[in-house]
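Why does this matter for the project? Reviewers at the last site visit asked to see concrete outputs rather than summary tables. In response, this paragraph embeds two records directly. Each consists of the residue sequence and, immediately after it, the corresponding structure tokens. Nothing has been edited or filtered.
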Amino acid sequence: MELGIVMPLKAKAVAKDWSVTSENLKATVDSVLAQNSDAFHAVVVGHDCPAFFAEQSYQDSKCEFLPYSDFEPPKAGPDEPENQLKYEFDRCTKILRGIMHLKQKYPSITHWFSLDADDLVRNNFVEVLKKHEQFDAIILEKGYFYFKNTGIFHEENEFSAYCGSSSIISDRVFDLPSQVNEKSYRDTPFGNISHVHMRKRLHEGGWSISIPEERVIMYVRDNGENISNDAFRKTYYNQFKKLAKLILRYKFVGKDVKKSFGLT
């Protein structure tokens, strides 16, 4: 197996706080670069390049930044569902552009992974996936949630229902289009199938699927840039209810696990 990892990055014009966006991405990239296997190539695709990529250690690393200019950053309007569609189009076309770039540069890549620019992978992520390389898809159902504001972790056994960083797809499952346009993002499973339905749809399509037992992925929440939870946290009552639920689901995570994801 040789893994292609694509991290779509929101534009500075869309970010709530570009410094927070850049900080979150750096943690994600660092977790990728900490792999104990070098059987991967990674790319961040975005309109704007975070400053840390100018550092020599990143210039010489296995993760590069690819400037994106196929479409302008999405402009938010009064219709929230429409805004969400714009954000998804932006994300999915960046994923496609990243796959096309890596495939041209490294034709030996066999599997693809779309990693959100604020999630973390464990330092044995690639090594674990290699044990499942004969499958058409690897679905990550066992992972961690990390609530950054409270420092609370919990184990999740239906990870793909919540997080898009949950599907590794073999190169043989799809063919790349010749160009990026308004509809071509649909040519990859990442742009055509919601992460919630990925496992079911690929199974129905006759593709072989494996689900690792190891927890090698971490969904980082409350990091200052998540889109979905702002309205929920508007009242103290809702904040209290949320914290109470987290405490009830809390799982102890040892120092070794935190360190393996780049957390100290």
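We now turn to the second protein, recorded in exactly the same manner.
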Amino acid sequence: MKHQHILAALVLGMGIANTAHAGFYDDITASIDMASAASLDAYFTRDLNPDVGDVNGVNTSTSMPWVSVLGEGNDAFDYFSFYSSGGTIIADVDYTYNPVRTRNYGFDAEIAIWKINPDNTFTLLAENDDYSPITAGAGGSVHAYDSFIQLDNVTAGRYVVGVATYSSVADDTGWIAGSSTLIAADRQYTLEISAVPEPETWAMLVAGIGLISLQLRRSGSGRIAIN
């Protein structure tokens, strides 16, 4: 029984470590192509975020799962993948061209969204450089050069969002080499992605957070007791 309590505590501790950063993905490695896109599946949350919203500027952070990518330039393009169970996908660049807060090195970003096909090829669905009004996506956008895409009525499947620098060109293979501009190593950006994850994955994330909260309440002191 003692070993079971220890195992449970370790599992819960891992859950706390993961959920401590729920909603935020720190981009520290370059994604050289769409096949190496960083997976965001484990980072979606529905916590309140003033910078997450739809094309009309309505905040959707507590009703639609989202993840915020804290992007770093690596003299490369950036690609991020995630599963969507269908409906709406939103990709919104914030605090980039005219940066505020602590992200001091912005740039004129471009974004694109692809769907991954069953044969592992890609289909370009949308590409955007500038977007107006800047109220789209709720808060966070500070300039019309901050890109925004909203796709409605998408089908279930895996998707990729790519980030590049103006003036880049995308096709079904990704950002086109020679026609697109890499993100310089000292550039920074924030990318908000909203989508409804795979039901099983989302259910496990929600259940894990609930279990952690229950265990913390039972421990009384905010720590997990090991007997």
